[in-house]
Design goal:
globular; alpha/beta; 18% strand; six-stranded mixed beta sheet
């Protein structure tokens, strides 16, 4: 089984889903499984996800009735607990794409700093082109006050983080809430 479970909630992103999935499958850190959660998408995303799963055994597809982003993330978490011995979990939004070294650096930082959550920054893109240069990678351990107050980081998003899977042992994203990431971000830090 894989060391890292990557959960991607999928809904109405036919235009972006290929780039998202390809960027995950192209990671330099290859000990991963990709859990695509089709949240009742009305476009061709369900078929696209199934086609990818037929081509790569690391991909698992969950088809469910539309329940929203939290329900989709929770389905991916539940699948990882029930079907995988992965130790880590991360989330990627289906209209995003990730740098090829994302998982490698997040995992390396978590191991080096002995932490349960590893966080990275993100860059804005326009049509797959970077708007800014990629900053030099550094690994630093910050306490909660430094993270939110001194560094003034507003990192309440679910993605751009690698979590020890045990962080989700007894919590899930609240279904039906807007900005659902805000409800769990402080719990994990």
């Amino acid at each position: 089984m894989a060391l890292i479970s990557v959960v991607v909630p999928v809904y109405n992103v036919e235009k972006y889903i290929h780039q998202c999935i390809d960027s995950i499958l192209s990671q330099t850190f290859t000990d991963l499984e990709l859990i695509l959660v089709d949240d009742g998408s009305p476009d061709r995303c369900p078929q696209i996800c199934d086609r990818y799963a037929e081509q790569d055994q690391r991909i698992h597809v969950i088809h469910q009735k539309n329940g929203g982003l939290s329900a989709a993330r929770n389905a991916g978490i539940d699948w990882a607990f029930a079907n995988s011995d992965s130790q880590w979990i991360t989330f990627v939004d289906s209209d995003d794409w990730v740098h090829p070294e994302l998982l490698e650096h997040l995992y390396r930082a978590a191991q080096k700093l002995k932490t349960s959550v590893s966080v990275c920054s993100y860059l804005e893109t326009i049509d797959s082109c970077l708007v800014a240069d990629i900053p030099k990678v550094s690994y630093e351990l910050w306490d909660v006050e430094s993270f939110y107050v001194e560094k003034n980081i507003n990192s309440i998003i679910a993605w751009a983080k690698l979590y020890r899977k045990s962080c989700f042992s007894d919590i899930r994203y609240p279904v039906g809430k807007i900005h659902e990431d805000e409800y769990l971000s402080l719990i994990h830090i």
